[in-house]
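Hey, sorry to bother you again with one of my protein questions. I've been puzzling over a protein and I'd love to understand its fold better. Take your time with it, there's no hurry, and the full record follows here:
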Amino acid sequence: MADPDLAKHGFFWPDMPSDHADHTERTQEGAIVKVATAFFEEMERRSEKVNPLKLDGPISRDEWHSAKGRKRPIVDQWFYVDVGVFIAPGGTGKTTLLLFQAICIVLGLDLFGYEVRNAGPVVILTAEDSRETLVARLRYMCHQLGLTDEQVQEVRESVIITDVSGKGIKLTTVEKDVVMPSKVLDRLIVEVGLLCPSLLIVDPMVSFGVGESRINDAEQAMIDAARRIVNTVQCAVLYVHHTGKANARDKTTDQYSGRGGSALADGARMVHVLQRLDPAEWTSATGDTLGPDDSGFVLARPKMTWCQPQPDIFIKRRGYGFERIAAVDPTEGAGAITRQNADKVDQFLRDEFVKGNKHTGRTLQALKMMPRQSMRDAVERLMTDGRLVSEAVTTGRGGARTFLRPIDRPN
C-alpha cells in the first residue's frame, strides 16, 4: 500500500510498489529543489537589478525628457515612495496612530486633511506588539470611525500584519566587520512585492537591525535595506523609531530627535516626529481644552524632501479616534490658558467660600495651585471680567483687611 500521506499530494494508486513510491518521493524532492532554486534565482535577479555592478551609460534622450523631479506620493505632502522614519517616545501611541493612517491609505480617506493619492495595501512588520493586539485596535478604530461593512472588509483584506517578535528576523547583518543588508531582506522583497503595497511599516526599527554598538553604520545599513525595498517594490518604507531620552524630556521635534546617530535622519527622505503635550501646552497651541479621556499631540514633519516645508499639526486622541485641531496665534493660546486658570481659581474660591474660608492673593499663591505669575494673571482676569472683587473684612479681627470674593456670592 502507498503511504497515505501521498494522497495529500494527489497520488491515489492504492497498490503502489515500494520502489515506485521511493521514486515518487525523490521526484517530489527534486521538484521542491527546482522551485526553491528558481525562487532564489529570481531574488538574485532582482537584487542585481536594484544593485547593478556595472556603471550606467550616458543619459538617453527619452530619459532626459521623462525623468521626474520628485517621487510618487502615497499621501500628498505626507508619504512618498521613498524611505521615511516616524519618531516618538515609547508609550506615546505611535503604533495606534500609524494604524489610523493605514486605514486612511487603504480606503483612500483624507488623512488629517491631506489627500491620499495612491491608495493600496499596507504591510506591517511588528516585533513589538502582537498581531492579535493590532487586529483588536483596528477593530476598535473601525467601529469608532463608523465604517461600513464593505470598508471594514477592505481594511481586513488590505492591512497585512506579520508578527515576527522573538524570531530573530534581521534586515541587516555584519559580514567581515561591515554592516550590510541580510539575505532575509531578499526574501522579504519577494514576499512584499507580491502584495503590491503602498506602504511598508517596520516597527520598531531597532528590532530589525544589528544593534547600536556601531550606531551610524547600523543605521546606514537599514537605510540601504529600505532603499532596496523601495526600488524593487515601488512602495514607501517607514521605520518606527524611538526618541532619545533627553529629546523625549525636552520634547524636541527636529529631524535628529531619534535616539542613536544621525545617519538615519540624514538618509531618510521623510522624518515625522510625534510628541505628547500636557493640557497647558495643548491649550496654548490650539486654544482647545483636553478632557479627562483626551490626549493631545504635536506631529512635526521636519524633513520632507519631496515637497515644501510642512507646518506642525496638532492631533487630539479620544479612545481610538484621532482628530486634527487647528493651531492658534500664540497670543490667543496664552489667553486661552489664562481663561482656564481663571475658571479653576474661580471654582476653588466658590467652594472655599461655601465652607467659610476666605482667601487673599497671598494665601492663593501659598497653595501653589499653579505658578505665581499664572495665579496673578488668573486673579486679574477674574477681576477684569467682574467675576471677583476684593472685599473688606467686617469682623474687626487683625490680619488681612480684604479678601477675594466671587461676585455673585452674598456676604
Notes: The radius of gyration is 30 Å. The first helix runs from residue 18 to 50.
